[in-house]
Amino acid sequence: MEIIDTHCHLYLADFTEDIEGVLQRADIEGVTKFYLPAVDSETTEQLISLEKRFPGQCIAMMGLHPCSVKENFEEELQIAEQWLSRRKFAAVGETGLDFYWDKTFTAQQYTAFRTQVGWAKKYNIPVVIHSRQSTPECIDVIKEMHDASLTGIFHCFGGSLEEARQITELGFYLGIGGVLTYKNSGLAGVIEKLPLDNMVVETDAPYLTPVPFRGKRNESAYLTYIAQKIAVVKNTSVEAVSAITTENAQQLFGMP
Ligand SMILES: [Zn+2]
Ligand SMILES: [Zn+2]
Fold this sequence. Notes:
Structural class: alpha/beta
Shape: globular
Low-confidence stretches: none
Bound molecules: zinc ion
Distance between the termini: 18 Å
Helix content: 40-55%
Order of helices and strands: EHEHEHEHEHEHEHEHH
């Protein structure tokens, strides 16, 4: 059984002490591939070097996180685009809008998001979208910039059934993570009514740790708790969830 963690920040300082153990524990659970979204230039070196250390296993994306969109965002975008022009990345990301933490730079977040969706189109790679408290707004940007080739993931999806349908109609996938295991998220009721064909799974490690480890550091081995919860909600087997979400991820990112 193989399963892909489509979104984890294993290059962050939280993992420097025990990254080998993290990958080993993941391997035992069948989690064999890790897609690494970028945050900003401060951690690019760690991102690239982790990919170098575990080639074919740890795979980098490139982009600017909406929470890192500040006064210097144009400079940050320039650095990210330089990387994209120089070598191949699995996706642009993570990008999007975050209205949960801070709304000071809302206009700049929009500019940075649209710019990065443009890169996804230019380089013909998927875009990975962070839409915290901004799912309808992110959908609007994708609708406005949509073309036949544009695809990607609404990572850590937490929206409504109607939003989920709009996203999948646009040819995008729903990234399902630890939030599904939280009692009051309401996400299970949404997932129940959606086909697995539009889902990929993710941990967003070190964040959003699933139950029963909520409150502790998240790591990719815990992806199994998310797959198990999906299996329960969809009344199917973990094997089926693994097989379908793995195929979806391969379809999206391309076979290595
Ligand atoms: Zn995110
Ligand atoms: Zn993330």
